[in-house]
Design brief:
Blueprint: H1 2-19, H2 24-44, E1 63-70, E2 82-89, H3 92-104, E3 110-114, E4 119-126, H4 129-143, H5 149-156, E5 164-169
Parallel strand pairs: 1-5
Antiparallel strand pairs: 1-3, 2-4, 2-5, 3-4
């Protein structure tokens, strides 16, 4: 009797252990078949490129008005009415470090500080808004539009898709 119960329990465990497992290969076969069908449909469809003749609307550029002063006296002559800001940092050492790295790439960087103590890292400064906007677009297209944002973020710690224009208040 004990052997019978033992055999019955053992048989039940074997049946339960094997019947609950999904057949992974069956799922994989169905998935691969569906994926292959999708690839065939995509390959059989002709690819057409449609060029839109309408120009894109002008990009609205963020302009902030602030009272700022140059951090270094040597930057005073370069700080004009409209500036392209690439970063706003609260720690002066971080702002100086970014300034040095950007200058090593050929930019003439100005550090300015606003009334709240934030350091604005400025890569270009102009008398007119139009010149500043054009420079912002040039920088954006040079870096961000090429897909270099991850490189720039890791190198400089700055998302270059957030460039903005600072209008200097006196």
């Amino acid at each position: 009797m004990k052997r019978f119960h033992f055999a019955l329990v053992l048989a039940a465990l074997v049946v339960l252990g094997t019947s609950c497992k999904p057949k992974q290969s069956a799922y994989k076969q169905v998935y691969e078949a569906a994926k292959e069908k999708e690839m065939q449909q995509t390959a059989s469809q002709p690819t057409t490129v449609v060029k839109d003749a309408t120009p894109l609307p002008p990009v609205e550029v963020s302009v902030r008005k602030e009272k700022v002063e140059p951090v270094y006296p040597t930057d005073a002559a370069g700080l004009k009415n409209f500036s392209v800001v690439i970063a706003s940092l609260s720690v002066k050492l971080n702002a100086e470090s970014l300034k040095t790295r950007m200058e090593n790439e050929g930019h003439q960087v100005i550090l300015a500080q606003n009334e709240q103590g934030m350091y604005r890292v400025i890569v270009a400064s102009y008398d007119t808004k139009e010149e500043a906007v054009a420079k912002r677009e040039e920088i954006y297209s040079t870096y961000a539009a090429k897909g270099d944002t991850e490189y720039l973020r890791s190198t400089y710690g700055v998302p270059f898709n957030d460039l903005w224009i600072l209008e200097r208040q006196y």
